[in-house]
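input
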Amino acid sequence: MQVIKTKNQLSLILTEERSKGCNIGLVPTMGALHQGHISLIERCVQENDICVCSLFVNPSQFNDKNDLIKYPRQPEKDAQLLREAGCSILFMPDEQEMYPEQDTRVFNFGQLEEVMEGVYRKGHFNGVAQIVSKLFDIVQPNKAYFGQKDFQQLAVVRKMVEQLSMGIEIISCPIVREKSGLAMSSRNALLTLEQKEKAALISKYLIESFTFVSTKTPAEVTGFVKKSINAEPMLRLEYFEIVDGTTLQGIHDWTDASCVVGCIAVYCGSVRLIDNIVYKNAD
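output
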């Protein structure tokens, strides 16, 4: 595995590989890798000749500076995990390399960014679009891989690719969970053992809520999840919404959309966790 730190060097290497007819896959990450990330890498390796993983903690997508400071970093361990997973290239730039000057671009994703994460993390998706579009321009991948845990981010990235006519295939990969059911996240490393145990209740209640779909309305299922989370002293619900999986707008009836997803954000102590469950899939 090659470790590259500059855009120019990466572009030169990939231009040469592309001239040989190689397909290139990209997995954008902020590091602190876990098995969820590795599942993306393994799929990327299987489906492409060259697997590029970017590791960059992007400051423009953090609306809370303390969150940026606390975000876990383990570059040496990450590099070892990527080698073992068969990654071809690790792109690990610093902030000056990615933002030699301020990125003033403003994206407009309409309703996709006006709900859920967009309400509680102002500017977050604009920062995501800035860095992902930069990475796409540098790598020019055939395919890019994202975890379904960040369901709203996936919708935003797809919209960005459409708006910029990038022609990149966005691959959604299933959520990988710990044995307890807790969705794997780099932020899990910030939880104490007791908090981790309580955080696993998030997925427990989501899975339980799935069993009510045939007998309860979306509003009733929403009420069950909210009440269950709010009954746990160590958990603080930020939002839980049942939405159309394409538009991300709320639904009133299960027949309102071909894909229906329940998206949740919960604080466990000071650690913010997100998760989701697909109630109804268009496939």
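quick obs: The two ends are 36 Å apart (CA to CA).
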